[in-house]
Amino acid sequence: DGGITQSPKYLFRKEGQNVTLSCEQNLNHDAMYWYRQDPGQGLRLIYYSQIVNDFQKGDIAEGYSVSREKKESFPLTVTSAQKNPTAFYLCASSTGGGTGELFFGEGSRLTVL
Amino acid sequence: GENVEQHPSTLSVQEGDSAVIKCTYSDSASNYFPWYKQELGKRPQLIIDIRSNVGEKKDQRIAVTLNKTAKHFSLHITETQPEDSAVYFCAASKGAQKLVFGQGTRLTINP
Asked: Exposed/middle/buried for A88, CB within 10 Å: 0-12, 13-18, 19+?
């Protein structure tokens, strides 16, 4: 099946620890995105990548890092510098540009204890 | 940069009635306006979109209208059904720029 897969679905971490969320797609999409979803705040863009080996900061990039070494993969690292990391994280992909449909993964819920 | 405001944050309607969700955007150059639906515990999915060269688009019980002068667009759902209960997000973008989402509206359909 074609789609976008995120893992893990649930993740717990202690304060001060870095954690990496996985995002893989087999849709052959050029563009990939990471969003953070908090109640009442919609979907806020963390990072996006329009092509392999290139990525740009979104609106709330502080405390996060990404890499795009392969077209299929766009992992997100939540670092200890992120002050409020507990949230629901959504990865998405598209054919590129701002007018293409976004295909979302099922999300990863991160809880910092 | 672009800013998208969405209202209301919650909406409750009787089954069979219509529901309207409204969004305003700040950048007059924005030209693409999609709507996403997120059912409880599921991923957001595109339900309808409109581009700035048209004023209205319909797909069965769902329609979107765009007023470029006023910089606002709306989602209309007619003959609402229980499966319409979800969180709806509007968004806006221009050209190849990234999408900016509204805050979301939680729609509840009461039987």
From this structure: middle
Per-residue HEC secondary structure of B3-20 comes to: CEEEECCEEEEECCCCEE
The confidence score (pLDDT) of residue A97 equals 63
Helices (H), A8-106: none
What does the alpha-carbon distance between residue B40 and residue B97 come to, in Å, rounded to a whole number? 29
A100 near B CB under 8 A: no
Tens-place pLDDT, residues B74-107: 999 999 999 999 999 999 998 767 889 999 999 9
Q: Give the pLDDT band (50/70/90) at residue B3.
A: very high
Nearest CA in chain A to B40: A106
| Pairwise CB contact (< 8 Å): A101 & B103 | no
CA A108 to chain centre: 9
Sheet containing A76-78: give its strands across: A4-7, A19-25, A76-78, A64-66
Interface test with B, best of A48, A56, A102, A108 (most B CBs within 10 A): A102
Q: Are B30 and B94 in contact (CB under 8 A)?
A: yes
